[in-house]
Amino acid sequence: MVDNKINCRTIAEQIFLAGVESVIPYRLITNKMSLKDNCLKIGHLIFSLETIENIYVIGAGKASAMMGAEIEKILGDRITEGHIVVKYGHSCKLNYINISEAGHPIPDINGFRATGEILKLAELANWNDLVICLLSGGGSSLLPDIPEGCLPEDMIKVNDLLINSGACISEINAVRKHISVVKGGQLSRIVFPATLVNLILSDVPGDSLDVIASGPTVPDPTTFLQALNVLATFGLTRTVPRGVLTFLKEGAAGKRPETPKPGDSLFDKTFNIIVGSNRMALESSKSKALEFNINAVIIDDQLQGDTSTVAEYLVETATRFKSDKDEVKPVCLLFGGETTVKMTGKGTGGRNQHLALLSALLLQNKPGITILCAGTDGNDGPTDAAGAVVDSDTISGAIAKNIDPYKYLNEFNSYHFFKKADGHINTGPTMTNVMDIIVVIVE
Fold first, then answer.
1. Using CA atoms, how far apart are residues 98 and 82, in angstroms rounded to an integer?
2. Whole-model pTM?
3. What is the pLDDT of residues 101-152, one digit of tens each?
4. Per the structure, how many domains does the chain have?
5. Which string of b and e fits 393-405 if b means at least 16 CB within 10 Å?
6. Any idea what the CATH number is for the domain that residue 184 is in?
7. I want to staple 80 with a disulfide (CB 3.0 to 4.6 A). Which of 54, 195, 240, 242 is the partner?
């Protein structure tokens, strides 16, 4: 039995961490890949290395360094060459694969350079070669390139506008795919006719392959016209750089080639394997809750939408469980996914801290409910916090310290609110990423 709020907060964090631990790359790669007697197994695929001339390893994402480390343990000097790109602070020592660090969630010059190096390897691959691609959350920002007629600063600005627009990840990526020569299945086009095997750590709701890292190895169902419609829907048509808008308009007019679509034969030698997902993390979190003798229910592993709407949903769901006399309590309600925030202030924070602050305001006068919102990558927005944990005492405690929660909320400054009021969840970079986990404990 959970007997006080301090325990609830501590237990919620332990439940969250159990989910993260279950999707650390070393577990995931060894579950999907093995080498014995010159026979390489990757998921359901089997390759005789006697028939493989070169093995190239490429990749992008927050978890790709740790994924690469496991690949090196299995293949060692059989790796001909490799290059992957990770977010700053997410690298590790590699012996056969080159590694670059670059900007995320906004791309920077190092990301453009790393993409160039990765594409050089992709272009080297030939018919008897095997290319292993490691993709994880953050891949879209970490694998940037510059379309014709655009400048690096154009790409940086359009990414900044998109991630602060309130658009969901599939809408954002529809644009990203069409201002790129690598996203939206185009990496497969470059690697062909070599065999391309992609080990993917999913960071999108529903594990949609065409959305993860903007789907560089997957047929793209979106079009230039849809990308333009996203800009129009979110009021970005007048603010995106002129070169970007011109490029998209030329594509919609048929003056630039579309991304490869389903049924294209270039995907005949491309294989996509999901090695980890949010659902896997939630199942492990559920098991951890049961260890504490807390009833546990996975409510949703595809949570999306504006943080304000989601906060109301979380509190309403928790309140319903609390008032249900037939429900065994304490109960842990688990949610996974990725919310969106439309920024109107200039503060510092991230979607999880903003969601936690919104939830705290709704939890006033609702004792017995604890809500933790955190990112599995350990970084919520451009901060060093993974997220925050709140309960009915969060707001009253802040006010007692002369901290005005509404001021921080209106300024989108949730990071500094929790810095002063307490409640941060700090893990440091976890080297993985399967979106966010929300842990709700109802006493």
1. 6
2. 0.86
3. 999 988 999 999 999 999 999 999 999 999 999 999 889 999 999 999 999 9
4. 2
5. ebbebbeeeebeb
6. 3.40.50.10180
7. 54
